Amino acid sequence: AQSVAQPEDQVNVAEGNPLTVKCTYSVSGNPYLFWYVQYPNRGLQFLLKYITGDNLVKGSYGFEAEFNKSQTSFHLKKPSALVSDSALYFCAVRDISWNQGGKLIFGQGTELSVKP
Amino acid sequence: DGGITQSPKYLFRKEGQNVTLSCEQNLNHDAMYWYRQDPGQGLRLIYYSQIVNDFQKGDIAEGYSVSREKKESFPLTVTSAQKNPTAFYLCASSMGQGFPYEQYFGPGTRLTVT
Lengths: 116, 114
Known about the structure:
The complex is a heterodimer. Chain A is an all-beta fold. Chain A is about 0% helix and about 50% strand.
């Protein structure tokens, strides 16, 4: 079965420090991986995705993610955190089962808190 | 949230009543999705539709129904058979299913049933 896990419920970072939000996946075959961000009482916003190619993917708002096939990980990173980055972050993997209509399988989310 | 509208933002209903949540998109996307979000559980897929007049059950379809009569609209009905309907409901759309397109999400509807 395909799955994605976010091992940390919450990550706390000081403003200006680098941040990492972790994600590991389990799929058969090549994974298609996504990161989304959600602000309180809002929908999810797409940040970036990995399909193939360069293992370092750059996305919106200065975020990037590193795909590591041997460790089955897709960690989200940012060199310098901002207070406005505080939000709920979701990792997702596309279900590659036949006829799943592009379904995404989401992790449970990681709450990022950036303190001044 | 651009391109996908959900209404209303907040909805209150009495137990035993059916309620319909609206989802409209102007992105000309073929595929549309409904997710349910509960605290600490991430998003769970309720129904999805790849083309007009066609839809499939997701992981938690029991107690829900949908229709897809128009490309831009994918309303979700929460029926009285849904045992725990209070949740945040998110609608999404994507260009299609053949390529790993990202999904775009609406702002959500928070449903409270008492």
